[in-house]
Amino acid sequence: MVAIQNSKLSLEFIPKGKVLSKIKSNIQEMAFSFWWDNWLGSGPLAFSRTEGGRPGNTSVSNFWNEGQWDLQKLNGTAPAHKISEIMQTAIYYNPDLPDKPIWTPTVRALRNKLPTDDRVQIFCGPTVTRCVCCSMHALEIVEHLFSSGNFARIIWKKYGGHVGIQTENLPLRLLLMKWWMTKACNAVQKLILDTLPIIICWNLWKNRCSSKYGAKNTSLTRVLYSTNSDINLLLRSNFPVIQWPFNWGELYSFIENVQHHTTITQVKWTKPDKGFIKINSDGSAMTNPGKIGGGVIIRDQQSYFIHAMAFPLGEGTNNYAEIEAARIGVQWCLDNGIPRVHLEADFALLDRG
Ligand SMILES: [Zn+2]
């Protein structure tokens, strides 16, 4: 069983009109902004962020490397639930020209618009149209490449088998629908069911291109390995505390058993021992180090209020603020003839002191 920590959720709201007018003015002159331009077609990515604060200034081309998406960079930056959508969008990048999205592989593959041989033939006239993915040397059409060809079928079977998805002889469109309609029990499983089909299609396409135009031979092992690597990268970047198995069979049963735990701890004030008074102190820091301050409240055994203070402490670290707040509380008690005190502070260093 694995526990996933709750992550903080916050949203930033930016007036839409402002962003849209910004795109219009910049679209011709400079690279698309990764966060603020509507290059995905589903609105600026910044609206999908789950972290607080304002995202940094970065352009789409920073995430596009040698003709493909840099998954490692995307994982470290983009919102997890948007990665599959981004990976479906390829861009034409030339450092001298503005970024320009040109195709969305899955959607385009569904509409039969990938530049496979059968499509190219329409423009170029008769040519050799044999696939490079398997020994069948079949007609290179999208269905063969991504779904019905021996090569693609082995890949889908390898991954779908563990998920319980039968993929034999399914058209690509239905095959993808099967993955996306499969019910997930937890957030990790949802991420995998949504993203893995895209990762598989992407690696099948990469294999096709590198054996057609590059120096590499078609290779099942390479596609399986790079698909496994992409999945692991996706999981390790999104849930870094968990040790994910590399092997897909082990990994998927592990994912199915992931459970979301929320731990609730009751926090309340407890009375000090008889004859003692209690000091509660806390330090604060705007940034660490930075402007710091502290606060103290002092109550008696019956929880009656005795004294409270809040004070700025100038510049320093959060540790210094905590120590100083506690010290000022204790000092006030000593100065006012109260020697028997309990000090309560949420600070680990004080225990060691
Ligand atoms: Zn083939």
Describe this structure in words.
This protein has 353 residues and is of the alpha/beta class. It contains 13 helices and 10 strands. It has helices at residues 16-26, 71-77, 83-87, 105-110, 117-124, 142-148, 150-163, 172-181, 187-212, 220-238, 248-256, 318-335, 348-352, and strands at 2-3, 64-65, 68-69, 90-92, 100-103, 258-259, 277-285, 290-299, 305-316, 341-345. A 4-stranded mixed β-sheet has the order 9-8-7-10, with helices on one face. Helix 2 (71-77) runs parallel beside helix 10, helix 6 (142-148) packs parallel to helix 7 (150-163) and helix 9 (187-212) packs antiparallel against helix 10 (220-238). The chain is elongated, with a radius of gyration of 29 Å.
**What can be said about the biggest beta sheet?**
4 strands, mixed
Mean pLDDT: 79
**Ligand inventory:** zinc ion
- Helix-strand string: EHEEHHEEHHHHHHHHEEEEHEH
> Tally the helices: what do you get?
13
Shape: elongated
Strand order of the main beta sheet, please?
A: 9-8-7-10
